[in-house]
Design goal:
Strand content: 5-15%
Radius of gyration: 28 Å
Distance between the termini: 17 Å
Protein name: DUF2851 family protein
Number of helices: 17
InterPro entries: DUF2851 (IPR021272)
Shape: elongated
Organism: Flagellimonas olearia
Order of helices and strands: HEEEEEHEEHHHHHHHHHHEEHHHHH
Number of domains: 3
Helix content: 40-55%
Structural class: alpha+beta
Largest sheet: 7 strands, mixed
C-alpha cells in the first residue's frame, strides 16, 4: 500500500455516497474532498465534511498510519491546526490537536474494494523490465485524452523552465540579453559541456560581450579564453598566437579571473568540439547586435532558422582544434541543432518574456512547436517501440515531461492517463 493510492481514493471521490464511520463510530458524509495541495501543509485544502451532526470546512491530511502524524511532527506545526479529518489506511493510534482535542479519523481499509486494489497493483507492478508502467494499456487510451494531457504537459514543462529562467533574471537584475547568452552558451556546450559552458557564462559580465561584439575575432578571443580553450596548448599558428595575445589584453582590461579548467573533447564528434561551438556563438553575437530583442520579435519558424544561420571564422573552416588542419567545411549550425536552440532556449524565453509583459503567447508558441520535428533520444525510442512515436516537437517535449516527471518516478496517480486507467478498471 502506498499513500498515492489513498490520495487517489479521496481526490477521485471513490468514497462519495458511501455510509462511512469514523474510528470513534461517528457518521461521516463527504460533501467535497477539497483542493489538492502540492506544497507544504495538509494534503487537501477547504474540504467539506459532515461528521455526526456537525458540518465542517477545513483541511484533510492523509497518511498510511495514524501514527505518521506524530512521525512527521504535525502536532507542533501550525499549518495542521485546521485539519478536520485524518484519512488513513490503518488507524493505530489516536491523534490530538495542540489544544488537546481529538482529530476525527477515517480508516480506509474496510471501505476499499478488492477490484480497486487489484487495478492499482496491475498498474504499478514492476515484476519485469519495462519502459513505463502502463505500456500494455497505453494504446487503448482515448486519443483526445492523450492529446489534451500532452498539451498540458508541454505547458507544465515550459512553466518549469520559466522558474529557472526567472531565477537567472533575478540574479542578473533582469538582464534579459545576458540571460539569453547564458542559456545559449549552455546549449552550445551540448550535453557533454553544457554545464561547464553555463557556469563559465554566468561568470562573464555580459557587458564584455557587448563591448567586443563589433569585432568578431576579439569576441572569439574573449570567449575562447574565458571558456578555457587558449591555455595548455602547444601551437605556433599565427591565429592562435593572435587570439591568446588579445585575450591576455582583455583579461587585464576586464579584470578577469584566471581560468583553471577546460571543457571536454573526448567522446565528442568534431562538429561538437567546444572550439567550434564557441566560434559559432561568437559569430551569432557579431551578426546581430541585440540578439534578444531580435528573437523576441520573430514569429515564423523560417525566420528563426535565418537568425541562427551562422558558421565559423576562416581559421575554423579547416580546423577543429588549434594547430591541426582538417578538410575544409563551412561548419554552419545544422537545422537539427537550431531546432534544439529554439526548443530549449528561445521558446522558454519567449514564454517568460510574455508573462513578464502580461501577455499570453501559449497558443502562438504551441503553433510554432507543432511545426518542428520530433527530437531523437532514448525516451522517444521508448515510446516509438510501443508503437506511439511523437509526431512533432510538442509531443516529444511533452513525452519527455511525462516520462521524467511521472513515469520514471512512478507517479501514475498524478498522471491523467494513469488516473483514467485506474478509474476505467475499477
Amino acid at each position: 500500500m502506498k499513500e498515492d493510492l489513498l490520495h487517489f481514493i479521496w481526490g477521485q471521490k471513490k468514497l462519495h455516497g458511501r455510509q462511512l464511520t469514523s474510528t470513534a463510530n461517528e457518521a461521516i458524509h463527504i460533501k467535497a474532498p477539497g483542493v489538492p495541495n502540492q506544497y507544504a501543509g495538509p494534503d487537501f485544502f477547504n474540504a467539506s465534511v459532515e461528521i455526526g451532526s456537525q458540518a465542517w470546512v477545513g483541511n484533510v491530511e492523509i497518511h498510511l498510519k495514524s501514527s505518521d502524524w506524530y512521525a512527521h511532527h504535525h502536532e507542533i506545526d501550525p499549518n495542521y491546526d485546521n485539519v478536520i479529518l485524518h484519512v488513513v489506511w490503518e488507524d493505530d493510534i489516536s491523534i490530538f490537536r495542540k489544544d488537546g482535542s481529538q482529530i476525527c479519523t477515517l480508516e480506509l481499509k474496510k471501505y476499499v474494494s478488492e477490484a480497486l486494489l487489484n487495478g492499482y497493483q496491475n498498474l504499478m507492478e514492476n515484476t519485469r523490465p519495462k519502459f513505463i508502467n502502463c505500456e500494455k494499456d497505453f494504446g487503448g487510451i482515448d486519443a483526445f485524452l492523450v492529446d489534451n494531457w500532452l498539451h498540458r504537459l508541454y505547458i507544465e514543462r515550459l512553466e518549469q523552465k520559466s522558474n529557472f529562467i526567472f531565477k537567472l533574471l533575478e540574479e542578473s537584475n533582469n538582464d534579459w540579453e545576458g540571460v539569453l547568452f547564458t542559456l545559449l552558451a549552455k546549449n552550445f556546450g551540448t550535453k557533454v559541456n553544457g554545464e561547464y559552458f553555463f557556469q563559465q557564462a554566468q561568470k562573464l559580465d555580459f557587458s564584455m560581450v557587448r563591448k567586443t561584439s563589433d569585432e568578431v575575432e576579439q569576441l572569439e578571443s574573449l570567449l575562447l579564453g574565458h571558456f578555457g580553450l587558449l591555455e595548455g596548448i602547444d601551437c605556433m599558428d599565427q591565429y592562435y598566437i593572435q587570439l591568446k595575445r588579445e585575450y591576455q589584453y582583455l583579461a587585464r582590461k576586464f579584470e578577469l579571473s584566471p581560468v583553471l579548467s577546460r571543457p571536454e573533447f573526448y567522446g565528442l564528434r568534431p562538429s561538437n568540439f567546444p572550439t567550434i561551438r564557441v566560434s559559432q556563438l561568437a559569430h551569432l553575437y557579431a551578426k546581430q547586435t541585440n540578439v534578444f530583442a531580435h528573437l523576441m520579435e520573430l514569429e515564423q519558424l523560417e525566420d528563426f532558422y535565418q537568425a541562427f544561420d551562422i558558421g565559423v571564422g576562416s581559421y575554423w573552416k579547416n580546423h577543429f582544434t588549434f594547430g591541426k588542419l582538417s578538410k575544409e567545411s563551412p561548419k554552419k549550425l545544422t537545422k537539427s541543432f537550431i531546432d534544439l536552440l529554439i526548443l530549449n532556449t528561445v521558446v522558454p524565453l519567449k514564454f517568460c518574456y510574455a508573462k513578464h509583459l502580461g501577455k499570453d503567447l501559449n497558443e502562438d508558441l504551441i503553433a510554432l512547436v507543432l511545426q518542428m520535428p520530433t527530437e531523437k533520444n532514448a525516451i522517444m525510442d521508448g515510446f516509438g517501440n510501443l508503437g506511439y512515436p511523437a509526431k512533432n516537437a510538442l509531443e516529444s517535449q511533452a513525452k519527455i515531461q511525462l516520462y521524467t516527471q511521472y513515469c520514471s518516478k512512478n507517479k501514475c496517480l498524478q498522471c491523467a492517463l494513469g488516473v483514467h486507467l485506474l478509474n476505467r478498471n475499477t
